[in-house]
């Protein structure tokens, strides 16, 4: 899947601004970004549900939106909101979707039987979908999205309403699909999910501000992240936040995680910043993580030169 100069404007608002994307086959490709960053709008353009204002899109060898109709049977789509029928049973929902996707009665029954077993819903197949738990609804929605064995699967923040254990289980299912050759594009605002992706794009105010593997993105911040153990964390946080070379300070329990703007602020500089206060502090260098990448990448239009795109 490829997109060049992908742009969507709503009046004067550029919801997506000149985005270039390359998504490899059989890859779990993540979209990370704050609310309103353009993730959902981008996904809807890529799958042909929304016409771009500008740009070129090629998905599975098809030009989009011109060949969007031909794309429908080759992709799956799962939204954040449960969109199946509450008053139909689990099996009825999947059988209906199999029929909509053109499977014969015999092939549809076999496929539904497999999905019920794979997604641990076989003991719930006669239960009304509306009475399922959040995690069960999520598994049913995923099963419905792949009932026709799509080559490409779009997931728009699919785990926002489920517990951590269900989220972990869901991601295991995604990697099973990727191992079988399915390309997956998933938007999320969870850092632990972003770390699981093979590749990751970060969007901010409609702009692509970072793109690469999680390891590539974090490597660009090497030497810019520090852990501070202080006798008075709140006082240390206020002092460090005023340093011109400190980009962010986050308190995690009794420790502070400090992200600097560049190599000018090293451990000695941070210790020096705390000199003259009544705070006793230990400053050590730590490995950057995706939350640090996210802070730098989405720091705002005024500091685009610091971004990682």
UniProtKB/TrEMBL annotation:
CDD domains: ABC_DR_subfamily_A. Pfam families: ABC_tran. Gene3D superfamilies: P-loop containing nucleotide triphosphate hydrolases (3.40.50.300). InterPro entries: AAA+_ATPase (IPR003593), ABC_transporter-like_ATP-bd (IPR003439), ABC_transporter-like_CS (IPR017871), P-loop_NTPase (IPR027417). Keywords: ATP-binding, Nucleotide-binding. SUPFAM superfamilies: P-loop containing nucleoside triphosphate hydrolases. Residues 1-230 form the ABC transporter domain. One of its GO terms (molecular function) is ATP hydrolysis activity. PANTHER family: ABC TRANSPORTER G FAMILY MEMBER 20 ISOFORM X1, ATP-BINDING CASSETTE, SUB-FAMILY H, MEMBER 1. This is ABC transporter ATP-binding protein. It comes from Dyella solisilvae.
